[in-house]
Task: inverse folding
């Protein structure tokens, strides 16, 4: 499908208005996944996920919830007052999303990454295994990265050695599971950074029993655990920026089981 046809098919699902309160950005690219040895196909994720989101009852015919979709991040001005959802593609596409947000906001960053892979590799080539390190090196103001769900078996040992990043104002904290996650520490980080931009990054590799991803991991998190965590972030830190990456529809079931589950997480975040 051509880019113009794809854009037309996506926007036809939604009630687009110039008074939009929700922004959906798509990055239908998986070259970084392929360069990292992952499975081809995550570039098709935005279209499939938006199709499933569009079928949900509350989504889109409400006048209150006006939505704008764009496949070119730079064409959609960032507003901190809008709720923004970014759909990859490979996890490396988060780099352009964070740049889009930070170049506009010029504020400290609190980034929460739920992922079995740390994505802190030191390779010079940009791919889906490098974006967290690159984000930490990107700016000279404070960046707090909270990694949740990193697996020892899914990462080279160098991913957990400090420092792997150059910015002395950056910090990294890791939690093996959502149960280990320290909610008070997150709230304290928000206060310490003094009104930071908060971004939640969900790499679908972390979802339990899901082969419809780029690089499946064992002992992941359930959809219900992620759903509950998103709800907590909405209620306690006013989450307004979220990215979802590495869903691969080529390996989903015929009824798009995992796409529907992921779309329900999108719906929970947006509404």
Result:
């Amino acid at each position: 499908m051509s880019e113009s046809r794809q854009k037309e098919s996506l926007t036809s699902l939604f009630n687009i208005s110039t008074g939009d309160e929700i922004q959906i950005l798509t990055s239908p690219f998986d070259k970084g996944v392929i360069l990292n040895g992952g499975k081809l196909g995550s570039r098709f994720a935005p279209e499939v996920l938006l199709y499933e989101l569009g079928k949900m009852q509350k989504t889109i015919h409400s006048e209150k919830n006006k939505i704008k979709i764009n496949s070119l991040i730079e064409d959609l001005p960032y507003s901190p007052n809008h709720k923004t959802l970014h759909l990859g593609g490979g996890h490396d596409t988060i780099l352009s999303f964070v740049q889009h947000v930070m170049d506009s906001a010029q504020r400290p960053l609190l980034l929460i990454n739920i992922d079995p892979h740390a994505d802190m590799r030191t390779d010079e080539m940009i791919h889906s295994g490098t974006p967290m390190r690159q984000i930490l090196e990107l700016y000279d103001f404070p960046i707090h990265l909270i990694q949740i769900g990193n697996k020892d078996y899914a990462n080279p040992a160098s991913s957990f050695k400090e420092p792997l990043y150059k910015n002395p104002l950056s910090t990294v904290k890791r939690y093996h599971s959502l149960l280990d996650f320290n909610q008070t520490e997150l709230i304290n980080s928000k206060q310490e950074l003094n009104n930071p931009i908060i971004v939640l990054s969900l790499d679908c590799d972390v979802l339990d029993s899901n082969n419809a991803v780029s690089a499946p991991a064992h002992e992941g998190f359930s959809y219900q655990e992620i759903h509950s965590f998103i709800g907590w972030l909405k209620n306690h830190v006013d989450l307004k920026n979220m990215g979802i990456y590495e869903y691969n529809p080529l390996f989903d079931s015929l009824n798009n089981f995992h796409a529907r589950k992921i779309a329900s997480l999108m719906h929970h975040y947006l509404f």
In short: Confidence is low (pLDDT under 50) at residues 1-19. Helices lie at 3-11, 31-35, 45-54, 94-105, 131-138, 183-193, 223-237, 257-270. The first strand starts at residue 22 and ends at 27.
